Task: structure prediction
Amino acid sequence: MPDRFTKSRPAAPDAYLVEAAGLRWLAAAGPGSASVVEVLEVTPDQLVLPRLVPARPTRRAAAEFGTALATTHAAGAPAYGAPPDGWTGDGYIGTQPLSLRPTDRWGTFYAEQRLLPYADAATRIGNLSPRGRRLVERVADRLRAGELDDDRPPARIHGDLWAGNVIFTATGVTLIDPAAHGGHGLTDLAMLHLFGAPELGTISAAYAGAAGVGPGWQGLIGLHQLHPLLVHAVTHGAGYGAEAEAVAGRYA
Result:
């Protein structure tokens, strides 16, 4: 088996460049942080990485990953929405553009860069109902007013942490394919909860203990899932729009 894996179909001319910057930024989070796949080579046309060999997920690896993810988040970012070090401009989440504009407050950032643009796009193509769009706007109003902010500083987050980007190997978990930026740590955890992951309960408990998120964090998971649901409403259909509408109704 080749020891390298080459990606060669970028979603956009600069997609691999921002992905590589994100991988390096996450890897620079310091001792005890989550393992991140190494960037061997990168050009606008290809990204070369070590080939990872998946292994059976274990509870120990999951617990170690939850703790390490909290350490990565604690490495911080200059602001909410800040791009990875070495990158200027916007990024991508999957095939969709992702705004990376530094913002002082999480609520403002999340409303204006993560919810409304994708709600508008999903509404335009008929995958989010007018009622759903109104509910998202109400959530955005609460976010802009600071009602859902907390005192946690900007975290260094992966940004697209579904199970397919969490690779269990013989030596533990390695992360791939980020949409890295300054955000809220619960956003990464919420993505894992949205699409599922091996040993998710163990990961979550270890993360919550290491990050000190405090009681009641589970009740905010849906709020942080609203962004990926709206992204998927744009890319994967109206079923995700209906789910986004239901979730928005809980926080409007």
User: Anything to note?
Assistant: The mean pLDDT is 97. Residues 53-251 form a domain with the Aminoglycoside 3'-phosphotransferase; Chain: A, domain 2 fold (CATH 3.90.1200.10). The chain has one domain: 53-251.
